[in-house]
Amino acid sequence: MTGLEQIAAQTKAGQLKPSQVVREALDKAAACEPLNIFTEVLTDSALGQARDLEDRLARGEPVGKLAGVPFCVKDNFLYRGTTTTAAAPFLLDFTAPYTATCLKKILAEDAILLGKTNLDAFAHGTSTENSYFGPTKNPRDPSLTPGGSSGGSAAAVAADICPFALGTDTGGSVRLPASFCGVFGFKPTYGLLSRYGIVAMASSTDCVSPVTRSPADAAYLTRILAGADPLDGTTFDAGPDPVLGRTPKVGVVKEFNTGLQPEVGRAFEAVLDRIKSAGWQVSEVSLPDIGLALACYYVLVSAEVSSNLSRYDGLRYGARGGEGDWEAVVGSSRAGGFMAENKRRIMLGTYVLSQGYYEAYYQQAQKLRTLLIRQFETAFRDVDALLSPVSPTTAFKLGEKTADPLQMYMADLMTVAASLAGIPAASLPLPVSGLPVGLQIMTPQKTDGMNLRLAEEVGKLP
Amino acid sequence: MSAISRDLIVHLARLAKLDLSEDEIATYQRELTAIVGFIDQLRQADVGDLPPTEQVTGLQDATREDEADERLVLRSEDLAANATLVDGQLKVPRVNL
Questions:
Q1: What is the CATH classification number for the domain harbouring A41?
Q2: B45 — contact with chain A (CB < 8 Å)?
Q3: Could you tell me the residue range of the domain that residue A115 belongs to?
Q4: What ipTM was predicted for this assembly?
Q5: In this complex, do A351 and B8 lie within 8 Å of one another by their Cβ atoms?
Q6: A76 in any annotated domain
Q7: With an 8 Å Cβ cutoff, is A114 touching chain B?
Q8: What is the reported pTM?
Q9: Taking CB atoms and an 8 Å limit, are B93 and A326 in contact across chains?
């Protein structure tokens, strides 16, 4: 039984009282206030959900697979009737007109929503420092960033406020904070989980991604969340899970086994040693052009961002700035509604899509994306999984990289390739004495179950 | 390679409908020069005749019946929650051509 299953079972058996569990979680959240994890704590709603659940349990009614489990979601998930801010000035007073499919599925299983967590504005960032509400602090060391953009979600689980949280991972935004905070994060195959009701960043790589205490919990959640959604035309129904049935063969990505902070290098070598001792086959695998993945990512994702963020004009919703004609109102609304990083990415995206630059940048990046996908496919013919650290460093200090956008982008050096290929990738916390270090496990598309089982096995190795 | 000129930043800001201050123009010029300098490395990639990837699901023609789906209808009270309506309609500024 997974941890989440256990909480649900104990709730059903009357061993855990939902309102007490929720009250404890809310108290913990309040005690962690200096960490700035939440954009909004939904106290009344959470206690109301707990009471409703208790009433239904008292009447002997059936309850869901996550009965009484407290959780939170990144504040780019829409929840009808409540505020979704995306941590940006534009949406501070935006009331969601509908609920995200993934959130709806979790609530339908009787989990209890504690609140919305902090993020880099519009999910643009690797440290949660681009939030309108200021940064979230790493529960392991509050002078450090928790990573981003799903910093709040990772911190909530790391601080023991709740056993799981949902975030989104577009280029590493759950894997990186999971790595920096010492919790488990999982980016599924693109299209496995519905993006309906998620504030869009880059539509061809955005993935709803869980943050949990264990791979088994992530698997439990992924099974609940997966499924073709008629409201998201990019989703599919997963077929039967491929089972390995033999000792795994893993490949170390050669190009990512260099330039590592010593603590990260040591933790990575140590887990490789444990994997070898367990009898798994470990080889070095080269993906010759993976070093260009970050450049490719920033071209494609900023292009998609510039398109997705063009909807924010202040006319139908969102903060409207200024008076005058259409140009004046839209221009000033957008000037005031976005954080600096949002504007940077919009302009970069506009640049790579504009006449005279489109072929050299955007089309070139689309072709490079094909090349990277093919290099992954070639690699996966020889190995079941590819391993690398999640990031070259451990959590960096607040303010350390804010003056240099390019340095900030580098944190995603090792995570963006899996996003471009749409393959599942996990961030597994390694046993270290210092700051948390995450191991990245990448497997082919539609092998999410296998990926999570491998993560679980690696996590249990002596 | 491509230095990002001030004029280019002004042009991009106009395309993207972003009003920028003089300070912002200077800052973004500096930052985008560095960022574009970094992404320029992908121009050397040997991608030749490879087909561009638009999306990674392999799905095609995800269609539905042309029937009204209640879930996709925005109710006027939801619209009103986020905008000021005049006679039940959105009032927007004039487009000056």
A1: 3.90.1300.10
A2: yes
A3: 3-225
A4: 0.95
A5: yes
A6: yes
A7: no
A8: 0.97
A9: yes
